[in-house]
Every structure is written in structure tokens, then in C-alpha cells.
Amino acid sequence: MSGLTHIGPDGRAVMVDISDKPVTDRVAVARGELQMARETLDLASSRQSRKGDPIAIAELAGIMGAKRTAELIPLCHPLPLTGIHVDILPSEGRSALVVTATVRTTNRTGVEMEALTAVSVACLTLYDMLKSADKNMVISGIELIEKTGGTSGTVHKGAA
């Protein structure tokens, strides 16, 4: 494992200087899920709750979250994002909604944090939208499953 890039030689936090890195197309895909009671999944899948369509609202919240990542993560570079897609689908055979976010840019640094933030914000929004129906929901498995671009090229991680 290489050294930590956000810690300077004096032990203080630093924002990585990316000015010498090449501009490349970069894509990151992240995933997470919200586990819930079957009745809550049915309610979410009907796309109606007392607060509105929880899936549509959470997809929009995920997009908004990706766009604001640099405001939330202190050493994250603000990036011009060229594409953000958030999908929320019921899991096959489990009582959960699976959130997948794909984020794109053409830049000197990747969009992994933006994809992870999109998934996190979408899961939190689903939780907020559905908490009145289910107090036992669990957000889990938020992970980066793929990234492309940059010097490390394509990285695929274990997607469940």
C-alpha cells in the first residue's frame, strides 16, 4: 500500500496537487443498499408515500449529493461533472432497495468520492422518506465497485 497522499511530511492535511496529472475521461460506479421490511419495500416500490415518490426523490438527492461532494469532503477537489446517473431498484430475492451511482468527468482526478457520496445521500434520503413506515431499516454495503481513467486505469471491485 502506498503512502497517504492527503498527509504532508509534517503530518498536516494537504490537498493533493494534481496540476501535473494528465486530463483523462474518468468514471466511477458505487453501490449501496437499504434493507427494510417487505411491506416497506412494497410501499417504496409503489412510488407513493405520504412524502411523495421516495425513489424519484432519492435519485434526485443522489445527483445533488454528487454535485456537492467537495463541500462535504474537506480535501476533495471541486470537479466539473459531465454525467451523474443514480438508479434505485428492488434487490432480487431480498427485501432491500439497491442504489447504484455512475459519475463521469474529464479531469485530472477521479470521481470515486462523488459516486460514493451520491449513493450515501440517496440511501439517507430513502431512509428519511420511509422511516415513518419502518424504524428498523439498515443502510449497508456502500462501496466503490468500478473506476476507470487516470494512471491506475480500470479497477473492478467485488460487487455483490
Walkthrough of the structure:
The protein is α+β, with helices and mostly antiparallel strands. It has a single domain (24-156), classed as Alpha-Beta Plaits (2-Layer Sandwich), CATH 3.30.70. Helix content is 28%, strand content 28%. The protein contains four helices and five strands; from the N terminus they run βαααββαββ. A five-stranded antiparallel beta sheet has the order 2-3-1-4-5. β4 (138-148) and β5 form a beta hairpin. α2 packs antiparallel against α4. The longest helix has 19 residues, at 112-130. The chain is elongated, with a radius of gyration of 17 Å. The model has no long low-confidence stretch (mean pLDDT 92).
Task: Summarize this entry quickly.
The chain has 160 residues and is α+β, with helices and mostly antiparallel strands.
CATH superfamily: Molybdopterin cofactor biosynthesis C (MoaC) domain
Q: What is the rounded distance between the termini?
A: 24 Å
Strand content: 25-35%
Structural class, please?
alpha+beta
Q: Report on the biggest sheet.
A: 5 strands, antiparallel
Number of DSSP-assigned strands: 5
Spell the H/E element sequence: EHHHEEHEE
CATH architecture: 2-Layer Sandwich
Radius of gyration, taken over Cα atoms and rounded to an integer in Å: 17 Å
The CATH class designation is Alpha Beta
Q: Could you report the average pLDDT, rounded to the nearest whole number?
A: 92
| Domain count | 1
Could you name the ranges where pLDDT drops below 50 across 5 or more consecutive residues?
Answer: none
Mass-distribution shape: elongated
**CATH fold label:** Alpha-Beta Plaits
Strand ordering within the main sheet: 2-3-1-4-5
The share of residues in helices is 25-40%
